[in-house]
């Protein structure tokens, strides 16, 4: 049960108009801050979700999320900024995200407007494209907005009775109208791991659907009744046929495509002969630190928005051995 290397899930197939987007980046080693690693500069306000009016007279800044999970963006001073539609009250169907700087933030699913009001929206962009460049407040709100919108899109009916659910608590609960049971947002745990040989090499793999020459670290879903560390060992064995030891946790990253939490690890290979399961991945190879540092290895690495790149950079910089 595999996740394509790099932190994407099987449902994470970008639409045709963005499938070709991939940063031209093949040199690793400058340690990157993962922009979606706990970058939350707003109060999620979990108690306010149960109030009839979570805004309570404060201005509401609404982030419109279209059916491709793109949002309005303008290019500010040195970095992009999300464009919010400020309203006096929570609009119907909006999902409460929390509050910051005296304002309430909400996400609203809907089509892009035909006309950009006031010319404030420079472009529409997705989390992969701009997540690494946003400030902390925008990055945290965008990851949260995309994740909760995905949950609503995929859970319109009760898993217990099949009845269409009703939305409550400002978008954070769906209720089965037949039995009254509440359905809450869920997050799927997945592991993503850099496997090294204890020396100067690590394993990178690639999916057939990726652009030619693009490699990343291995990843996979945690199965029921399984620990994250056991999932690391199992997924590596399944994908490239080697055993690992010294499995160590690095950090985590929300990856709302559609609803994963990526748990990052490094692990040391016990044996080094790769036996690739081509049903899992197309190709896997050992790469040296120098190849990744100099750009003579893969033609493309994961973007800096991803935990995959964060772990690769830290290993190349010598943090893990």
From TrEMBL:
Its EC number is 3.6.1.22. Its cofactor is Mg(2+); Zn(2+). Residues 185-311 form the Nudix hydrolase domain. It comes from the Bacteria. SUPFAM superfamilies: Nudix. Residues 1-25 are annotated as: Disordered. GO terms for cellular component: cytosol. GO terms for molecular function: metal ion binding; NADH pyrophosphatase activity. Keywords: Hydrolase, Magnesium, Metal-binding, NAD. The keyword Endoplasmic reticulum does not apply. GO terms for biological process: NAD+ catabolic process; NADP+ catabolic process. It catalyses: a 5'-end NAD(+)-phospho-ribonucleoside in mRNA + H2O = a 5'-end phospho-adenosine-phospho-ribonucleoside in mRNA + beta-nicotinamide D-ribonucleotide + 2 H(+). NCBIfam families: PRK00241.1. Belongs to the Nudix hydrolase family. NudC subfamily. This is NAD(+) diphosphatase.
